[in-house]
Amino acid sequence: xATDVKVPTLGESITEATIGQWLKQPGEAVAQDEPIASLETxxxxxxxxxxxxxxxxxxxxxxxxxxEVGAIIARVGEGGAAAAPSKPEPKAEEAKPTEPKTGExxxxxxxxxxxxxxxxxxxxxxxxxAQAAHDAALTLSPAVRRAVLELHVDPSAIKGSGKDGRIxxxxxxxxxxxxxxxxTAKAGAxxxxxxxxSPPPASAPASAAAPTxxxxxxxxxxxxxxxxxxxxxxxxxxxxxxxxxxxxxxVDMSAVIEAxxxxxxxxxxxxxxxxGFMGFFVKAVALAVRDVxxxxxxxxxxxxxYSNFLDVSVAVSAPKGLVVPVVRSADAMSFAEIxxxxxxxxxxxxxxxxxxxxxxGGTFTISNGGVFxxxxxxxxxxxxxxxxxxxxxxxxxPVVKDGQIVARPMMYLALSYDHxxxxxxxxxxxxxxxxxxxxxxxxxxxxx
Length: 448
Prior knowledge:
Blueprint lengths: L2 E4 L9 E7 L6 E2 L4 E6 L4 E5 L4 E6 L6 E3 L3 E6 L14 H4 L12 E2 L2 E3 L7 E2 L2 H12 L4 H10 L17 H26 L9 H4 L2 H5 L11 H16 L2 E9 L1 H18 L5 H15 L5 E4 L2 E4 L5 E3 L1 E3 L2 E3 L2 E2 L7 H17 L12 E5 L18 E5 L3 E7 L2 E15 L5 H16 L2 H5 L2
Parallel strand pairs: 15-19, 19-20
Antiparallel strand pairs: 1-8, 2-4, 2-7, 3-6, 4-5, 6-8, 9-10, 10-11, 12-22, 13-14, 15-18, 16-17, 20-22, 21-22
């Protein structure tokens, strides 16, 4: 008797998803609660687990198909893995087409290749290597597992750089790159050893056709992921609905840089996390919204909803697009709590393991384009929020201090806001409060 595998509930307002990858194939054994498929939703990737132990007997959808919540996508039968189909016994003349010469090692045997040197060492077929890598990858995150399978890398040979020695996607990419470089170097060495001292004249025409292939003009069509489609829809919705406006200011980062340099070692020793810039900016925003609460509010119908708490959506770059996990009650957090939460979100985004609840809500957004080298930008608000703060790269610029032109590490700040709710005076005041807190971090301690 087969058991149906259904699409689980994916979260509030999410009714469908896309099958991103099948993690198990028909005929393979599955344990109870073992992932058999990965679904891509509007926000995150979700794994579908087998409700029972048995054998995956049927897949009802292909990768890339759209499925609704509650739909049956596969069936799991009773028993262990299905036995591999037995191969018919080869005929005598097929099994032994030629008689090997005396003393010459036999090249092949039934069931796999044999070491040409005649040592009798069995070499696993390529599909067995892939299956072994597949089974080992099942304990990894969806993003890492997919990279392992696509790049044909053995995860047991990779030393993880993540927390508790876990393998990250970057570890897999680095291992694949090292594998390719090693293979290229080996192939080059073999080719060089076999190449004649002076190439024959006949080889010249063969290389003449290479420039033609290099000049080909190609196009590639790739279907948009569900996450990318959602990002496009929401950003356009923000432009169509809100009265967007952006105001700018610049901030001298000298005091924050000096504070980090002075206390970074003690901070990391005590809290186990590095002291970054985001902690200062989250604290500065928490201070500024007390004076300008409309920046932390939203419009619902004909009403304005003011929040007496600060849930900061932090824009994080993920492999498939931008995601915004939420640091909840950030105004009540310490520097260490803020830095730890953001670091954990960044790792989860990289591994594709962020949950729905971690990205739900948010009253204000901070986007740091400076990590990618951005000098200036006009960020778009994240509906239904009314404002977003854009941070940018720090660079030394000439500024006037006490009548003297001096070089200072400066950063441009941008506040995009919904002019239906936030007036220009309020937006400028908010940005000035953030600037004052960053240029004099003591304000963060004495609540000024």
